[in-house]
Design goal:
By secondary structure, this protein is mostly helical. 80% of the residues lie in helices and 0% in strands. The protein contains 14 helices and no strands. The protein starts with a helix and ends with a helix.
Length: 329
């Protein structure tokens, strides 16, 4: 067995090298690949040295030094990354729209599940006075009639706007959460809530339009709908993808398949949540404001164009840079 001095002399160089690698200003994942691989090998070697030093009964200060060095290595590899404001920007500017485009099949299916019942609800409520009553309670229909019988540009006080913005945040996120979370039932829950909410929204629009207040509800909803309705569809698509991960596991266990898909699904969910937050503030402060109806509809058209351009184009440059590396086996 080596003496302590011989052990230190033989291993000191690797310990110093590991300490240098861990002591750099940059996080480990920002280092060159060769340095990351070297750090991993040195970390494993230090763990073995620590066990050897303990087993041989070397001095306590040597054991403590190796224990601390091994602990720094463990934290570098396995600790949760710190929260960064830049990460939010990366999600908005790059990761969310890229992931959305990768989920094109799920988005198309979710959009169909939402929009087709919405069209059915609108046409049914517009054509038949009894149709809306089969979808919604009469009390709810009466409240809708009263709410949209007046111009949405009448304006209201700031306190009411703030209260309603909070209500919209809670309500909208609740709808989106149900569309996503129930996807755990192999996607069936997401299918149900997309169809249900689409039918509900379409029926309300058809009912109000039949009463002659169609422009009022269109003017009120036009500003926030590009964010809100898109986010609901995205949440449903995330739920469908969640359910699909439980069905098509790629040879993994269901839990393993879910863990593999979780980061990508999370990007969709967080992006949808941010869109719903924007929608709630627009609905709370802009939609009921005293801005003339024509101005609100004009801004709504602009927002539709901006949201569409963002989802289709944002992150394209980063996406193009990532493709060559994705092709490497």
């Amino acid at each position: 067995m080596l003496t302590q001095d011989e052990f230190i002399a033989r291993r000191q160089r690797d310990w110093d090298r590991l300490a240098d690698l861990l002591g750099q200003d940059r996080a480990l994942h920002h280092l060159p690949p060769a340095d990351i691989a070297e750090t991993a090998a040195l970390y494993r070697a230090v763990c073995a040295d620590l066990m050897r030093a303990r087993g041989a009964g070397y001095a306590a200060n040597l054991v403590a030094y190796l224990d601390g060095l091994a602990g720094r290595g463990h934290n570098a590899f396995y600790s949760a990354p710190p929260h960064r404001l830049a990460a939010l920007w990366e999600l908005v500017a790059r990761d969310f729209p890229i992931e959305l485009r990768k989920s094109g099949r799920f988005m198309a299916f979710a959009a169909a599940l939402f929009l087709l019942p919405a069209v059915l609800g609108f046409v049914g409520a517009l054509a038949s006075p009894s149709f809306a009553a089969t979808v919604l309670p009469s009390e709810t229909l009466a409240e809708m009639e009263e709410a949209y019988s007046q111009s949405p540009s009448a304006g209201r006080d700031l306190g009411t706007n703030s209260m309603m913005a909070g209500f919209y945040i809670n309500n909208n996120i609740g709808i989106a959460f149900r569309c996503f979370a129930t996807g755990v039932f192999f996607g069936l829950g997401s299918v149900f809530f997309l169809v249900y909410n689409g039918l509900l929204i379409g029926t309300v629009f058809g009912f109000i339009t039949r009463l002659g207040h169609g422009l009022n509800i269109l003017t009120f909803c036009a500003g926030h709908s590009p964010f809100e309705l898109t986010a609901i569809v995205i949440s449903g698509a995330a739920g469908l993808r969640l359910g699909y991960a439980l069905i098509e596991t790629g040879g993994r266990t269901r839990w393993g398949s879910l863990r593999t898909q979780a980061p990508d699904i999370a990007r969709l969910v967080f992006g949808a949540a941010l869109m719903l937050l924007v929608a709630a503030f627009i609905e709370g402060y802009w939609s009921p404001s005293s801005v003339p109806p024509l101005g609100k509809r004009g801004v709504a058209v602009l927002l539709v164009v901006l949201v569409t351009a963002y989802l289709l184009c944002a992150g394209r440059r980063a996406e193009g840079r990532a493709r060559p590396s994705e092709a490497v086996p």
